[in-house]
Every structure is written in C-alpha cells, then in structure tokens.
Amino acid sequence: MAVKEKVGIVVSDKMQKTVVVAVENRTSHPKYGKIVVKTTKFKAHDEEDKTREGDRVKIRETRPLSRTKRWEVVEVLTSSSEA
C-alpha cells in the first residue's frame, strides 16, 4: 500500500512537537457543478519543532503516535516569514 502524502498550511503550533495542518480538498458538486472546498485538519508530528503558523508543509501518514496524531511533517515547502 502506498504512503499517503498531503500538502497543507499550519494553523496551530501551540503544542510541543505537534502542529495542526489544514488541508483543502476541492471537488466539483455532482449535480450542480460548483467547486466545493472542504477543509480537513490533521495533527502532525514535528520532531524538531521547526514549523510555525502559516507555513506550507508536506505531511506523510505514519503509525499512530497518540490518540489523534497519525501524520508526520516531511518538509517545509514555504515558510511564513518568506511570504
């Protein structure tokens, strides 16, 4: 089975070694055709605590690390300080 990877924006970095990443999923409505944006939040493990709020990151699915944490930060694509 392939490892799932997603790209999203860090919306919270208040926890130790954990960030909350919001991932947008854009789909077309089956009947009306309008583009519908659905946002899902994932808790991801950040070992070095290097990501900040507003960063665009890539996350990868991993084994359960806690009750709600099943993802890990792979890389920081763009930093909030650069934007």
Automatic annotation (TrEMBL):
Signal peptide: none
Record flagged with keyword Ribosomal protein: yes
Entry keywords, A to Z: Ribonucleoprotein, Ribosomal protein, RNA-binding, rRNA-binding
The keyword rRNA-binding is annotated on this UniProt entry: yes
A molecular function GO annotation: rRNA binding
Superkingdom of the organism of origin: Bacteria
Record-level GO cellular component terms: cytosolic small ribosomal subunit
SUPFAM superfamilies per UniProt: Nucleic acid-binding proteins
InterPro entries named among the record's database cross-references: NA-bd_OB-fold, Ribosomal_uS17, Ribosomal_uS17_bact/chlr, Ribosomal_uS17_CS
Family according to the record: Belongs to the universal ribosomal protein uS17 family.
Known role: One of the primary rRNA binding proteins, it binds specifically to the 5'-end of 16S ribosomal RNA.
Quaternary state and interactors: Part of the 30S ribosomal subunit.
Protein's name according to its UniProt entry: Small ribosomal subunit protein uS17
Organism: Pseudanabaena cinerea FACHB-1277
Phylogenetic classification of the source organism: Bacteria, Bacillati, Cyanobacteriota, Cyanophyceae, Pseudanabaenales
